[in-house]
UniProtKB/TrEMBL annotation:
TM region positions: 36-62, 69-92, 211-235, 256-278, 284-302, 340-359, 371-392
One biological process term in Gene Ontology: apoptotic process involved in development
Main location: membrane
GO cellular component, one term: plasma membrane
Provenance organism: Parthenolecanium corni
Keywords assigned: Cell membrane, Membrane, Transmembrane, Transmembrane helix
Localization annotation: Cell membrane; Membrane
Name of the protein: XK-related protein
Similarity section: Belongs to the XK family.
Keyword hit for Metal-binding: no
Membrane topology: Multi-pass membrane protein
Superkingdom, natural source: Eukaryota
Amino acid sequence: MSEVRVVRFNSTTLTLVPESEKRKNESLFSDPDFGLFYGLCFIISIMTFIMDLSMHCWLAYVYHTRNDLFYFLLTATFIIIPSIVSTGFSMRWYILDEDDEQSPAKPSLMKWSIRICTLLLQVTQIHRYFDALMYGLRSSVAGYRKQRVKQDYLYRKMLDEDCDAALLRLFYCVLNSAPQSVLQLTILLLYKMHEADISDNYEKVTSVDKSSYHVFEYQCVSVSISIFSVAWSLTTYDRTVRFIREDKNRLSCVGTVLNFLSHFTWTVSRVFALAVFTTLYPRLALLGLGLHSTLMSAWLLYKQEVNHNRCDECVLDCMLGIAYIFIFISSHSGPQRYSYYSYYLICFAENICCLFVWYQNRSRSNNQLYYALIVIQISSFFLSLFFLLLYYKCFHPNRKYIVTQQFEMTETKGDKSSC
């Protein structure tokens, strides 16, 4: 037993893996490395969630005070429903963890009380991020005290909590932040188009219209935070999956930044394209998004392998079909290169169609707004491709492993030739 070093969790059991087996593959669960950047990721996730939710609630209050009942109901709907869905998922996962008889530790009554309070307050994601941060800090303290087994256990608990929090945040952003960004940008464009039709000069706008400029500022901030939240949630999900899965190499800090920039610029491109089309034809846009989501869900169901969890997999694929309206999430193991190619080509064609319809129906009184939105959408799309290609070419985790393998093969051939 002196060779045992790394503590790992399987789906239901706790196993001890010899160090000699760990050395066979560099992508296996390696030494805990919770550091400043990992803690910063938790803090950014908590802050963006609070800012995102606060801005949406504030906009709903502003619409209510301005007697914009329709916009108030839409904004409130995209706040309440995603919150209930994410809270239900979190509660179910807590219950499943509690029913696991082979779990090494059960939460105390105090911990369950805190969980119930956060579930009732609809802030369960903050609680999960805070728990993951505490596990990470305790793991670092245990490592400083040379308590290796305790450090590995706490680090694994941190990864498990981080994985649940990242998946919850991703679902929440798909159901809340992404639709909110499209909705608020659509309302903003409608106000701007109406203002341009009334007058070309700011001095001729009525006093009631002048008060709308404060609403414009809130909407711009809300759209920016929502787009940031969507990109960040997908980045942290990709990062967490690579940390918790033993068959994947970890994502570096530079790789995380490039991954985020790719997701951010892509989300900007997608949100702007959908918003400009929704501004002109809201019902047709809703029909098109429903068709897009249905086709994506059918494609995922077609790729799905038959197993005993068929119902759960169908629900997950339907959720991913909704997510594919805005972003691409890798749902199956193995290479995803052609899936990325297909998704980007389809969405690029949809974006071009939206921009073409937007350009054909533009108002001559404000051409600058139309041209600016077209430039933002197209430039964001190609920037996304640039960051994505740079990430896969230079900073993808598998690239380091491939280069190491090639170097070892070169050394082996050199040794054989010298013999």
